[in-house]
Each structure stands twice: as C-alpha cells, then as structure tokens.
Amino acid sequence: MRKAGFTLVEVLMAVLITGIILSAVYTCFVGTVAARQYSEQLRESGRTGQAILGLMKRDFEGMFVFSSDNIPLEGRSDSIGSSDANTLNFVTTSDSRRAVNGIGSDYNEVGYILSLNEERDGLLNLYRREDQYVDESPFAGGVLELLDDSIKSLKLEYFKEGGWYLQWQEGELPEAIKITLVLRKESGEMMGGEPVTRDYAYTAVALVPAGCSW
After folding, report:
1. Per the domain annotation, does 93 fall within a domain?
2. I need a surface site. Which of 1, 28, 62, 163 has the fewest CB within 10 A?
3. How many domains does the chain have?
4. What is the DSSP code (8-state) at residue 173?
5. Is residue 12 part of a domain?
6. Taking Cα atoms as reference points, which of 100, 101, 103, 114 lies closest to residue 56?
7. Judging by beta carbons within 10 Å of its beta carbon (0-12, 13-18, 19+), is residue 150 exposed, middle or buried?
8. What pLDDT shows up at residue 44?
9. Are 179 and 53 in contact (CB under 8 A)?
10. Whole-angstrom Cα distance, residue 81 to residue 112?
11. For the chain, what percent of residues have pLDDT higher than 70?
C-alpha cells in the first residue's frame, strides 16, 4: 500500500506550475502598470498642449489695430538649431493673466517668445510676454511667464487674401493664424532603465475678427 504524501516529482511539478502562474501574474501586472503610466502621460501631454493652444487662440482672437502709426502685429519666422521657433508680438483685448496692484486690464501687449532650454538638449522654453500698459513700444517690455520647457518646435502661419505667409509685419492684421506646436514629453515607457520620450503635435487655427474684411 502506498503511504500518504507527495513524491519529489510531484512537489517539483507543483513548484514549476506555481512559478509559471506567478510569472504570468507578474507579467500581467507589470503590463497593466506600464499601460496606465503611458495613458496618464499621454493625457498629461495632451492637457499641456491643448492648454497652450487654447491660450494662444484666445489672445489671437482678441487682436486689434491699436494705432494707425504702428504695425499691429510683428510675426517673425525664426529657428533655433533645427527647430521652428517663431515669435510674435501684438496687442489684444483678452483679459490679463496677472494683476498689477490688484488690478487687471482688458487691453494688453502680448508676445510669444522661445529660447533655448540649456538643461534639455534640443528643446525650447516657451514664454508668454504680457504688459498691461499699451505704449509707444508695444512689442517690448512686460513680464515673461514660462508656459512650458519641453517645446520641440512652434510654427505660426498667417492667412490673408487666399494665401498663407510665414512672416507678418503688415499695416493690417491677418484673417487667421495657424498654430503648429510640437512638445517632447515622457511617454510613460521605459527602455534600458531610462524613460522614453516622444513628440506630440498639436494644431489649431485662430480666426482674427479684426483682420477680416467681411
């Protein structure tokens, strides 16, 4: 009669099967965590890109001709390294984002300016310039606010009379401005123990009522 208990082979088989099950559970867990991190990073980069586009559209849609003696919009097609780094300055009716002595303003000088990010190779800093006092130098002065430090490129195109232009220094405003923004963000994935970065592109067109002939 066989005594109660397990043979060595049965024990080893049980250990092997348990190990396979635990390995499968661990792989599934790691995959779930990685997918969640990727999804969260994607949402975060999306929120950042959409927030910047929304702010720029709001400012562009409020552009107006502030003086017949001045160019109302200065849009330059620049580059830093191999990246598009367009800049522009104008006056807008959009509300100020900061108060001076507790007082905001409905008329502001605004600019979007890029500079090289010294700490992150190949990336740019995007600043929004705001000056509540519209003066004889509407394209200078004010306070800079850092919007993001992971800009890969920013391209602006100006539409007027059926054509798109890369620069604008005319005596009138364009009818629309196309924004193409590329951010370089961590994707939530890892490779060789280091986070993987990816480029996320965002595009929007802002209509400029003060530049339309209709």
Report:
1. yes
2. 1
3. 1
4. -
5. no
6. 114
7. buried
8. 57
9. yes
10. 18
11. 81
What residues of the chain score a pLDDT lower than 70? 1-6, 10, 24-46, 99-104, 213-214
Alpha helices in the chain (DSSP H): 8-61
Query: Encoding tokens for residue 165?
Result: 């232009």
Q: What stretch of H or E contains 204?
A: strand 194-207
DSSP string, 61-89: HTB----TTS-SEEEE--EETTEEB-EEE
C-alpha 209/C-alpha 155 separation (Å) is: 21
pLDDT in tens, 134-151: 888 889 889 999 999 999
pTM, 2 dp: 0.76
DSSP helix/strand/coil, 37: helix
Smallest CA-to-CA distance from 164 within 182, 151, 179 is with 179
Per residue in 191-201, is it b (16+ CB within 10 Å) or e — as a string? eeeeeebeebe
Locate 32 and state its tokens: 């779930």
Q: Which domain holds residue 72?
A: 42-211
* pLDDT for 214: 57
Interatomic CA distance for residues 193 and 178, integer angstroms: 38
In-domain check, residue 20: no
Which residues pair with residue 185 across a beta bridge? 198
